[in-house]
Amino acid sequence: MLKAFFNPRGVAVVGASTKPGKVGHDIVANLKNYGYNGGVYPINPKAKEILGLPVFKNIDQLPDEVDLAVVAVAPAMVVTSIYELAQKNIMACVVVSSGFKEVGGEGTQLEKDLAKACQETGVRIIGPNCVGIMDSFQGLNASFAAGMPNKGHIGFFSQSGAMCLAILDWSLDNAIGFSKFISLGNKVDLTETEILHLLAEDEDTRVIMGYLEAVEDGKKFMKAAAEVTRKKPVVLLKSGVTSAGAKAASSHTGALAGADAAYEAAFSQCGVLRVHTVRQLFNLAQALARQPLLAGPAMAIVTNSGGPGIIAADSVEKLGMHMAGLRPETVDELRSFLPSIASVYNPVDITGGAAAELYGRSLSITAEDPNVDGLMVILSPTATVDPREVARLICEEKTNKPIFSVLMGRHSVEESRIYCMEQGMPAYDFPEDAVQAMAGMMQYRKWLNTKPKPPDLVEGKKEVVQGIINEMRAVKRREMSETEARECFKAYGINVAQSIPAATSDEAAAAAEKLGCPVVMKIDSPAISHKSDVGGVKVGLKTPDEVARAFLEMTSRVSRLKPNAWVRGVLVQEMVQGGRETIAGVTKDPQFGHLIMFGLGGIYVEVMKDVSFKVAPITREDADQMVKSINAFPLLRGVRGEPPADMAALSDAILSLASLVTDFPEVSEADINPLLVLPRGQGAMAVDARLSLSRPNGEE
Amino acid sequence: MLKAFFNPRGVAVVGASTKPGKVGHDIVANLKNYGYNGGVYPINPKAKEILGLPVFKNIDQLPDEVDLAVVAVAPAMVVTSIYELAQKNIMACVVVSSGFKEVGGEGTQLEKDLAKACQETGVRIIGPNCVGIMDSFQGLNASFAAGMPNKGHIGFFSQSGAMCLAILDWSLDNAIGFSKFISLGNKVDLTETEILHLLAEDEDTRVIMGYLEAVEDGKKFMKAAAEVTRKKPVVLLKSGVTSAGAKAASSHTGALAGADAAYEAAFSQCGVLRVHTVRQLFNLAQALARQPLLAGPAMAIVTNSGGPGIIAADSVEKLGMHMAGLRPETVDELRSFLPSIASVYNPVDITGGAAAELYGRSLSITAEDPNVDGLMVILSPTATVDPREVARLICEEKTNKPIFSVLMGRHSVEESRIYCMEQGMPAYDFPEDAVQAMAGMMQYRKWLNTKPKPPDLVEGKKEVVQGIINEMRAVKRREMSETEARECFKAYGINVAQSIPAATSDEAAAAAEKLGCPVVMKIDSPAISHKSDVGGVKVGLKTPDEVARAFLEMTSRVSRLKPNAWVRGVLVQEMVQGGRETIAGVTKDPQFGHLIMFGLGGIYVEVMKDVSFKVAPITREDADQMVKSINAFPLLRGVRGEPPADMAALSDAILSLASLVTDFPEVSEADINPLLVLPRGQGAMAVDARLSLSRPNGEE
């Protein structure tokens, strides 16, 4: 597929035009103008010649050595073209025509027809509604963009055509190069997932960079990304984060933007480096494409001015790295030749009066220090130093550690900055940009340091859960009763507080006797999911008598407030003492499926929003990380002499929950709230349980 | 002073040089080359002529019409020059010579001598160790910088000379203009405070922009900034934030960088807009200099491409503004002429095929919508639209609402971007830059909407506090006993839990009888500030007998663990039930003085670091804001049916604390922990109190 799209023997342009300025004309011109050495075959029923090339009347007349077609006809004619291309065994196709899903109405139907044509013929399609594709190494420009990217090792794809054009335009004057440039458009067939695989195979691509508004199939994407990121870094800008962004996203491409928590979790679980601005996308991608990977977080700065050195050091610490402590040998060596007023500690400030040559020596010596993992060189323009000379020395430096150069200013340094970029040295305007790229690189290093591992799945008693689900489906019920939910969690090894259902006050008193007071009483009704809102929970009932009275009071109150709710009775439950409330839950994200949540119970979740997420299924390490990554984690580890909580038991419960929903995709929501965690060695216990199912397929 | 420095009748260059490349030569050249129409008087004992100007042998020979001197002689000769200048009544001086405080050792002494010369002569000095000063409107370039800023309305000052040079260099190719450009250097005399006043007076300056590593005198600075920011926005980049940055800062200029919390609080209390990167500094300053102020947070976006529109909408929400809901009339009018596939809601997407003219119309119509406070225009390069045409239409738009233009890309839009900048329209590369500038502008609008107000001071019984302090000073004690600290807080109107000191077990039992059980017992020793660490706190003692036993146990335990601590006995204290633990405290920042802290008690402070700060003295509104701005505030407002806390009582206590330390500057630290807040109307109560004093002046 890579070959058909990017190294085709010949390219047909369906809907080629004789008129300059028309898309169908610009594509032919682009194919001719950038050194592509295969044949270019314009198709137009009326024209004889376009830009000196003979024109074909229709697809059928094309010669055999055509592997790729660019389709730029009116939207209503695109589907027919696909069938005709398939007839000629042209199986790769870029549809630039617009007027599909993005315009709604009839366009939506046209897009469905196009999808069907894909499936029936096996023709692979990029687009529709895209700008096209480019390969700088093949000189192939199968797009209507104005220009061709510089050669380079960033493989780029974008859901938005405008972002393609803007990024191309930006790159041309910044000496940023691309291997492949792919405009995804509406993604009727090839999505980001296939493109990831395609760029992963591509030898010219070292870094994959992309702009997305939504992922089409979250699970497939995660699987692909988890593989690809082991070979090459993947840097993505995903927009549509906030509600306003998401609103704009859905009016733009009709894509349903998933909740941001799911994207955040999914990207981190499959090693995707997420950035949040276009500038960050460039900053990080160019560093990854041009420099060796950081081995660790210890940075050294060589600068000719204090202020920018301070700003850089600030950013280094803020973004989770640290300033390297230089070895005494390094310090001594620097002191031996730098001016007396220079600072020979990190940041190494060679001072504004220092000549270019001192930059080179300081950089080499600092780079050799084993305490240093990565280097930043900052140049502020001064009268005494020639930035071109400094740029040359930086680019000549031989080290296997990454160097990030910052040439402050513009007027007198732009030439040198572009020189650096051309020489393969990432060069930035301001220190913060460089540090942010370092931080992204560090994140990738950490990802590579983790071992790929299949998810850990707890073996549950599937038949128990299946039985309950079957019963529910039979009566078209989607909300489990608490008893049922407890059974399901128990079937996956989660400790649940003991409880006994009771239908009468006598039964309730007997249950309390059996469990031992104090007990908790809860209303038992599948129709009532928020029990405390209707006075359906009583804690600390001290005697069987009190329990009996509470039964009458609770049931009569609930029947008054919820006259139509079917009430089975109550659950009488042992009252677990001590321990700390946590919450574990599941929601279903439209793109990525089950999203597991963990947090400290009560106000930590409700007020502080202090929760962590992962997409199921997960590994044990993922579960541990969910527990550790909440802000309130020190509370679980124990503060002020309190014993540490049983964190392993929390991970167990989270894993069980993830396994349960992985086995039963029909689960749409689940909550264990509270999941009471006891001191280390004493486990965790589900005190309240909820679980609901998705609508069965086809049911509204 | 403004006139002497920036509109002098003549300028002397002390230490002028005949050799190009020397600082003393470049200054003379800069004074000659940029249109300054006063006299330039080089001084050099040996030379006859420099750049065609006659040279004076010494300061004494200068004519009378010299108001400003630029001093570039060897550091050891600078002080003498100041006395000579004073003799000639030249009272404004820029010292560019380096070799002072920044090099340590002898330089530190030279700087002290220079400070003395200032005081003795009344000569005002900018520097030493600075690049110089420039005034683009006067054509005055009294610096050794390579170049002169474009004319514009940003007044800039910088503590770092390198930042001056880099920012000047950057501005030259970006059509960013400056009114005044001031390199502060070591700030031996004029500091950021005087410069703020000076730029506030300056008619050519609309926005003040600065780079600082530390503020010299926090109180003076805050007073000046609070005044100045009412007239003009002040945008500051303050580095040295993290520990690494602070370390680099102190090795750079010897300035002691204050804790960042103090800067953050101080800047926000006096309306300074703080930015965190150099790019943000530019982004915001150019918007404030060139556009009318935002009236509110409702933004509209006009774009020719969906992707960038989504990114922009995301950023708008993320930074605390929102996307305006357009009126139906606006929507209808847009629909009447835009292509059918355009989005007529906000973001208004006029589509990639739209001609420039549609930009202009859409922008005008959207700007007229009363629901819109500010506008962003985004242009992505496409084949159909001429960016120059769009730039012209944007610049011609007549509206009193701010417009931020984003010209995505570079190659095909740079010319248009620069055109916008030249026309006074802020123009950015990427949407996020523009939104960040909007957010800064919004913050300034909010500041202007607050009314300036003197601090609220609680009238305390000063004599009580003074008495205790006198006793402590007499015995050279710096840590108050809890009883003393309680007395001080009580003297300023803070409720303290009742307590009775007891020196024997019988006294303790009697105290418990009097207060009513249960009670709390705490060890009473000025030598022990963390009582619970030594078992010095017992809560919930239920009977006088239990109290007596606890006394013996506690005192013997403490004397075992802290054999040398003087123990007065214990405090028996009423046990306040209910309520929520908060903490209020004071620390002393070296730059800004007393810093008041508020947070929720216990783990919220220790684990979540969820606290707010203000510099004392404060207003009641400040106190309210401290309470409201912690993340856990919803807990105080009441969640899950709990009653709201007595927030007014918390503000009262915070105000009292701030008043106490304002009256007694010798207080170095204070803690009310916990400050128990009861439900609304029931007040707040200090349960534990600590207070300590600074070392008296002169004592080590």
CATH-level-4 superfamily name of the largest domain in chain A: Succinyl-CoA synthetase domains
Distance between the termini of chain A: 40 Å
The tally of strands of chain A reads 30
Radius of gyration of chain A: 31 Å
CATH secondary-structure class of the largest domain in chain A: Alpha Beta
Task: Characterize the overall form of chain A.
Answer: flat
Tell me the domain tally of chain A: 5
User: Number of helical segments of chain A?
Assistant: 24
Report the largest inter-chain contact.
Answer: A-B, 96 and 96 residues
The CATH architecture of the largest domain in chain A comes to 3-Layer(aba) Sandwich
CATH fold-level label of the largest domain in chain A? Rossmann fold
Please state the structural category of chain A: alpha/beta
Runs of chain A in which pLDDT lies below 50 for 5 or more consecutive residues are 249-258
The multimeric state of the shown protein is homodimer
Major sheet attributes of chain A: 7 strands, mixed
DSSP strand (E) fraction of chain A? Answer: 15-25%
Helix content of chain A: 25-40%
If you average the pLDDT of chain A, what whole number results? 91
Spatial arrangement of strands, main beta sheet of chain A: 9-8-11-10-12-13-14
InterPro entries (chains A, B): AcCoA-synth-alpha, Acyl-CoA_Synth/Transferase, ATP-grasp, ATP_grasp_subdomain_1, CoA-bd, Ligase_CoA_dom, NAD(P)-bd_dom_sf, Succ_CoA_lig_flav_dom
Protein name (chains A, B): Acyl-CoA synthetase
Domain ATP-grasp (chains A, B): 486-522
Keywords (chains A, B): ATP-binding, Ligase, Nucleotide-binding
